[in-house]
Amino acid sequence: MLATAAWGWHIDTAIHVLRLILSGALDRYPGLQLVIGHLGETLPFMLPRLERALPTELTRLDRPVSAYLRENVHYSFSGFNWTPAFLDLLLQVGADRILFSTDHPYASMTEARAFLDQLPVSAADKERIAHDNAERLLGL
To answer: Which of 6, 53, 62, 85 has its CA 20 to 30 A from that of 105?
Structure first.
């Protein structure tokens, strides 16, 4: 479990996203949008550290790593129904980048919906998260 659902999956996914950014792919394709799960696979928590440790002078990217994480990545819940982690994501990237999702069949759909209902955000932000952001991103 340590290598998969408890920890490894999330760290591996975060590293893949960072490698994609650091490869310059998002400079070559600035309109490319990624969706990652689990409230960002630890990336929102690490965003200030990444900004400090990977300046553009080092990465030679067009923008800071944090800009790609705020402008080219969308973040879904995926069964991570924890208010403190959600609030960190919200503060780091804003409500327009967050997508409601469940992690069915691995996590409860009922719990995911209850989590959405109790989010400490405005009604407008809850609508964005519940469906507006996904509709905009996917052109629905």
So the answer is: 85
**CA–CA separation, 131 and 111 (whole Å):** 17
Domains and CATH numbers, the chain: 8-138 (3.20.20.140)
Q: What is the pLDDT of residues 22-49, one digit of tens each?
A: 999 999 999 999 999 999 999 999 999 9
**Which of the 8 DSSP states describes residue 2?**
T
Say which of 62, 103, 117, 132 is annotated catalytic.
103
Closest CA to 70 of 108, 38, 43, 100: 43
Taking alpha carbons only, the member of 57, 1, 44, 131 closest to residue 9 is 1
Determine how β-strand 98-99 pairs with β-strand 34-36.
Answer: unpaired
103 is catalytic: yes
